[in-house]
Design brief:
It contains 12 helices and 14 strands. The chain starts with a strand and ends with a helix. Strand 13, helix 10 (268-279) and strand 14 form a beta-alpha-beta unit. The relative contact order is 0.12. The chain has helices at residues 6-20, 44-48, 60-72, 91-98, 101-104, 134-138, 151-161, 212-224, 243-253, 268-279, 302-307, 312-323; strands at residues 2-5, 24-28, 53-55, 76-80, 114-119, 144-146, 168-173, 180-183, 196-199, 204-208, 230-234, 237-239, 256-263, 289-293. With 324 residues, it is an alpha/beta fold. The strands form 3 sheets. Strands 3-2-4-5-7-6-12 form a 7-stranded mixed sheet, with helices on both faces. A 5-stranded mixed sheet has the order 9-11-10-13-14, sandwiched between helices. A two-stranded antiparallel sheet has the order 1-8. The protein is globular and about 60 Å long. The chain has 2 domains: 2-183, Thiamin diphosphate (ThDP)-binding fold, Pyr/PP domains (Rossmann fold, 3-Layer(aba) Sandwich), CATH 3.40.50.970; 196-323, Rossmann fold (3-Layer(aba) Sandwich), CATH 3.40.50.920.
Length: 324
């Protein structure tokens, strides 16, 4: 067991993968000499050299476009975007090219790249640097989507992502980088695309991912003190989506909540709630509840920012009302 931060786990995953595979390189703004916007690639240029840590101009379309071409040519690039908010600038390269090339070429050419970026609130970074845009990615067939909520998953999911034959968008939550946990780098972990049941209960199932896993666990502990036992499912990846685990737990318990930091309208929570309602209808005692971000631009104000996304208290209160 090694104590490390979420940031350190990501760095170690890159080091281990780049040591094993010479085809892996990192490309992005300030990923080399500066060490990345959040310090994930700090020191890697000293170990692997500037030819594998490529600093680029400020052009997200160029970064992702270069990565797509390199992946088609047999390399395995890791493209870093400072903020997921900038993913819109890369939608042609990512959604019209990377996501579709395998299918348009009849499987003869793939795009085995990883797009690392970060999202979410918690740093008072304002409306253009605090969004949760995973629904954009989830809506695009051909893109895989991983969103680790624990330090162990930051390591293991990135290692798995770097072996996938398809493009993976890997979204890290900006509020988790300093979080510390003991990690077993050699432990058996759930397979790629497999959710993790972090806690089991008999009264309500909470389905969530990324930072909201921690809020759900805090809420579950508080609920346990009131005689309400909650199951907490950490999806880990949104594409592939492990609906088999969701179905099994919801059918067993009969009540479900979905928690997401992304906006409520047409978001990930909406898709998950709809599928649970459709596929588990005969087992549900009550309607599926969505808890998600407000449909507003994120404020730079600390208080308004915190109030615009789910919290452990909101999850607890909502679960208590659902069970009652």
């Amino acid at each position: 067991m090694v104590e490390m931060t979420y940031r350190d786990a990501l760095r170690q995953a890159l080091i281990d993968a780049m040591t094993e595979n010479d085809d892996i390189f990192v490309i992005g703004e300030e990923v080399g000499r500066y060490g990345g916007a959040y310090g994930v690639t700090k020191g890697l240029i000293d170990q692997f050299g500037p030819e594998r840590l490529l600093d680029t101009p400020i052009s997200e379309p160029a970064i992702v476009g270069t990565a797509v071409g390199a992946a088609m040519a047999g390399m395995r690039p890791v493209a870093e975007l400072m903020y997921v908010d900038f993913i819109g600038m890369t939608m042609d390269q990512l959604c019209n090219q990377a996501a579709k090339i395998r299918y348009m070429f009849g499987g003869q050419i793939g795009v085995p790249m990883v797009l690392r970026t970060q999202g979410g609130t918690g740093r008072s970074a304002g409306a253009q640097h605090s969004q949760s845009l995973e629904a954009y990615v989830m809506h695009t067939p051909g893109l895989r989507l991983a969103m680790p909520g624990t330090v162990a998953d930051a390591y293991h999911l990135l290692r798995m992502a770097l072996t996938q034959p398809d493009p993976v968008v890997f979204i890290e939550h900006k509020a988790l980088y300093a979080m510390k946990e003991d990690v077993d780098l050699t432990a058996h972990v759930p397979d790629w695309g497999k959710a993790a049941v972090r806690r089991r209960g008999t009264d309500v199932v909470i389905v969530t991912y990324s930072r909201q896993v921690h809020y759900a666990m805090q809420a579950a502990e508080a609920l346990a003190g009131q005689g309400i036992e909650a199951t907490v499912i950490d999806l880990r990846t949104l594409n592939p989506l492990d609906f088999d685990t969701i179905r099994a737990e919801v059918e067993h318990v009969g009540r479900a909540m979905v928690v997401s930091e992304g906006p409520l309208t047409a978001g990930v929570a909406a898709e998950l709630a709809a599928r649970i309602s459709e596929e588990c209808f005969d087992f549900l005692h009550d309607p599926v509840i969505r808890i998600a971000g407000e449909d507003i631009p994120i404020s730079v104000s600390v208080a308004l920012e915190a109030g615009s996304v789910p919290s452990a208290e909101i999850v607890e209160q909502t679960a208590r009302k659902l069970v009652a």
